[in-house]
Amino acid sequence: MKKLALAALMTTFALSGCSTMDNERTMVVEGQPMDVKVVNIPSFEVEVAPRKAVCDLTATDGSMVESQCLQYRQTYQKNYTTLNGNIQGFTYEPNYRYMLDIRQEAVTEEGSNVVQPVWILNEVISKTAE
């Protein structure tokens, strides 16, 4: 979770010049709450691992639930990070390594003014059996 937050924060700062949106949200990075900008990113590539990893997700009642999450990394990264959510339009099959072109959109949750990054599939670049 810590790596995901840090990766999202670094990606947000690195690509913040590509967006005109001013949506901010508070994330916990290395134990400290920080306000970060959630930006629209029209296209970036990620590699999805052939196996899911065990991760902790927050349930609707606020409790932590153990689940299986996708693992992803960008082409310049060595280690995988768990994705606590889904990629809209993407259907995962185990034992395949995927290269995906995706986009990120800032979406405000209904009933609250919380801005969340949502990943949406642009294209499956490759699908390789492992």
Secondary-structure topology with pairs:
Layout: H1 2-15, E1 24-29, E2 32-37, E3 41-48, E4 53-58, E5 64-73, E6 81-83, E7 87-88, E8 96-108, E9 115-129
Parallel strand pairs: 7-9
Antiparallel strand pairs: 1-2, 3-5, 3-8, 4-5, 5-6, 8-9
Please name the defining characteristics of this protein:
130 residues, mainly beta, 7-stranded mixed beta sheet, two-stranded antiparallel sheet, 53% strand, globular, disordered N terminus
Describe this structure in words.
This protein has 130 residues and is mostly beta strands. It is 11% helix and 53% strand. The chain is built from 1 helix and 9 strands, in the order H-E-E-E-E-E-E-E-E-E. The strands form 2 sheets. Strands 3, 4, 5, 6, 7, 8 and 9 form a 7-stranded mixed sheet that branches. A two-stranded antiparallel ribbon has the order 1-2. The chain starts with a helix and ends with a strand. The N terminus is likely disordered.
- Whole-number average pLDDT? 79
Series of secondary-structure elements, N-terminal to C-terminal: HEEEEEEEEE
Largest sheet: 7 strands, mixed
Number of helices: 1
Low-confidence stretches at least 5 residues in length (pLDDT < 50)?
1-22
Cα gyration radius (Å): 15 Å
The separation of the N and C termini measures 26 Å
